[in-house]
Design brief:
Helix content: 40-55%
Number of strands: 11
Structural class: alpha/beta
Pfam family, one: AAA
Protein name: ATPase-like protein
Radius of gyration: 30 Å
Largest sheet: 5 strands, parallel
Strand content: 5-15%
Number of helices: 24
Length: 645
């Protein structure tokens, strides 16, 4: 076992020595289920012709009545896999791939358990227990360490199996249900329980080679989730979670109870847009450009972005505006920029959109789809960009009877992923939520968007000339006239004008609050006066909570990082991207600008304007709906009385 930084290597020879034991487990073993109930009964052969099998023995001994007396049934995974295609007596390539992947995953799990036993002291306790010399005072510690090893063995087996099978997956999916037979007495029993349950799942869902892979991968995901959940409260796991474990041959890194994924790029088929093709939307375009370059500062060795550590990194943002104002164009521009930067640097880039087609009528499936989307984008081995277009149709408001169960599941998953207790912002990915009707998004979910991109489309005369010229194309000879084409789209000038517009609020409700506070305390030139203004906003809108203040301060930190990373840093990766983490941090720190009072006031107004805009629209929509209801009631009453008369 070699050690590098906080990464430890599982040597190939330590893994391969467990191949024989792993193959024996796949060949066959007996297991009595203790938690799960068999979904497929094993056929027990008759002992002799005409003599049936006996009924199950039920103990009458006190204390043993409740213990399971089920017969241990034989688990033969290799035979189960090969039986998927009865018409072909030979093992198919996919069946062989699955057998090899399971053997490899079991061997990695056994090697990991052995390594954990060495670093945690469990190996010494095992030897003492075998020799009958285990101190009674250490039996509690011994039991806890065995349980920890069992959780590690189960999770690593599932993690490695899912990782090794990922390249062989297809569009086929299997709904295998929850993993139940997770036994924590010791590592061998944990693996036996997992293999027994996998055998049950394959018997139900492994109808052909493609579904064998799908069912195994689905069960591995469920087992990982169950083991990780159990590990949250289990003791003695520090020896495993304190370091990352590397399997060089498979390019597999085991980082505690986090799922490992292959750092592969997604193939993008969208039509990318250049920045000048995004007309108007100056602040949104400006922040998207900055964020695209911020992502590229991510350090794959440290697995952290200097911007995330210093402050100013946008993990989630909300893009809202009227239909046709350019939200899709903004997504195409940002995805195109990141894609080009990653190609130049040789980084894996993963873009994924979560759409309405991911909402499923099958209970729990929508939540699984949302979790899969989140996991794919936050994979620390890639630069990730995830978008949720029309989020008001996808994530349902809590308590809204018109929202489906699937939409409610998606809301719960996004709430936890974007600002939950287990959320870790590494700075390698960002999520954009886009909507024409953000007032219909659940308040708490909307407030988890750290930045607001107002996508308002073209605004000025120059903007409309630019967008007309752009969309007309080149198949004409109409003269341009007296106009500096795309001159109004120069980012620096346009952004400066846009930010200055927020020195005072835009929404009438907020403007009234601002004017009243300004009359009482004068210019907002101190933290005390800014706090007074924030309290006044909260009194006007009770949804303006501590999370709103955090989002505002994060936006201010973004403004402090409001500098252009030089283009040659992106074009020549040696200058910046390939530098070590500390060097990149120092280079960024030199460009940072100080925070000013104007920045803070502008960001308060920008954020509060958006909340007041959402609240006003939401209240107005609710009032209009009630007016329609009252009108229908009055008309129904009139017709009813006419009918009686």
């Amino acid at each position: 076992m070699s050690i590098s930084g906080n990464q430890m290597e599982l040597r190939e020879e330590d893994i391969r020595k467990h191949y024989a034991a792993a193959a024996a487990m796949l060949e066959g073993f007996d297991h009595t289920p203790r938690i799960a109930k068999p979904a497929v009964e094993a056929k027990t052969p008759e002992r002799s012709s005409g003599l049936g099998t006996r009924r199950r023995f039920r103990s009458t001994t006190p204390g043993l009545v409740t213990r399971s007396s089920a017969r241990p049934e034989g688990v033969h995974l290799i035979a189960r896999i090969e039986a998927a295609d009865d018409d072909d007596p030979l093992t198919s390539p996919l069946q062989a791939t699955l057998q090899h992947a399971l053997r490899r995953a079991l061997a990695i799990s056994l090697a990991m358990g052995e390594a954990y036993a060495d670093v945690s002291g469990l190996a010494d306790l095992k030897r003492a227990n075998l020799a009958g010399s285990l101190d009674g005072a250490r039996k509690g510690e011994f039991t806890e360490l065995l349980a920890a090893e069992a959780l590690i063995a189960a999770h690593v087996f599932a993690n490695a199996a899912a990782y090794l099978l990922a390249p062989h997956g297809s569009e086929a999916q299997a709904e295998v249900g929850e993993a139940e037979e997770l036994l924590t007495d010791n590592a061998p029993l944990a693996l036996h329980g997992a293999l027994w349950e996998l055998d049950q799942k394959l018997a139900q869902h492994g109808t052909d080679d493609v579904h064998l892979i799908a069912a195994t991968a689905a069960y591995a995901e469920q087992l990982m989730e169950k083991a990780a959940l159990r590990a949250q409260t289990a003791p003695r796991l520090e020896g495993f979670t304190a370091a990352a474990w590397r399997v060089e041959t498979d390019d597999l890194t085991i980082s505690g109870f986090e799922p490992a994924t292959k750092a592969k790029s997604t193939t993008l088929t969208m039509a990318f847009k250049k920045p000048h093709e995004v007309v108007g939307n100056h602040i949104a375009k400006h922040q998207a450009l900055r964020l695209s370059k911020m992502l590229m500062a991510y350090d794959f060795d440290r697995r952290l972005n200097p911007f995330a550590e210093m402050g100013g990194f946008i993990f989630t943002f909300m893009g809202d505006g009227k239909p046709g104002t350019g939200k899709t164009t903004l997504i195409q521009m940002m995805a195109g920029l990141i894609h080009d930067y990653c190609q130049n640097a040789g980084y894996a880039f993963r873009y994924q959109n979560f759409g309405i087609d991911n909402i499923d009528s099958y209970q729990g499936k929508s939540g699984q789809n949302a979790k899969s989307f989140i996991q794919n984008v936050i994979d620390p081995g890639v630069i990730g960009f995830g978008t949720i277009d029309d989020i008001d149709q996808i994530a349902g408001k809590r308590g809204d009877r018109q929202s489906s169960a699937g939409q409610q599941e998606v809301t719960a998953v996004f709430m936890e992923a974007f600002a939950g207790a287990n959320t870790v912002v590494r700075g390698n990915c960002t999520f954009g939520m886009f909507s024409n009707y953000p007032e219909n998004v659940d308040d708490a979910l909307r407030q988890r968007a750290g930045a607001r991109f107002l996508v308002d489309g073209p605004q000025t005369r120059e903007d409309y000339i630019d967008i007309l010229t752009l969309l007309m194309g080149k198949n004409h000879e109409i003269p341009l006239g007296d106009h500096d084409l795309y001159g109004a789209q120069e980012i620096k000038q346009a952004v400066a004008r846009s930010f200055e517009a927020h020195n005072r609020p835009q929404e009438p409700g907020l403007a009234e609050v601002f004017g009243r506070v300004h009359d009482q305390i004068g210019e907002l030139d101190s933290l005390a006066k800014l706090g007074t203004y924030l309290k006044a906003i909260q009194q006007a809108d009770e949804r303006f909570t501590g999370r709103a203040i955090k989002n505002i301060t994060d936006a201010v930190k973004v403004r402090a990082m409001d500098f252009e990373l030089p283009d040659d840093w992106m074009e020549n990766p040696e200058l910046f991207l390939f530098q070590d983490y500390d060097t990149k941090s120092a280079m960024i720190a030199e460009l940072r600008v100080p925070i000013t009072i104007d920045m803070v006031v502008q960001e308060i107004n920008r954020y509060a304007d958006s909340e007041f805009r959402y609240a006003d629209k939401s209240d107005e929509a609710a009032i209009e709906a009630m007016v329609r209801d009252f009108g229908r009631q009055e008309e129904a009453k009139r017709r009813y009385l006419e009918g009686k008369g």
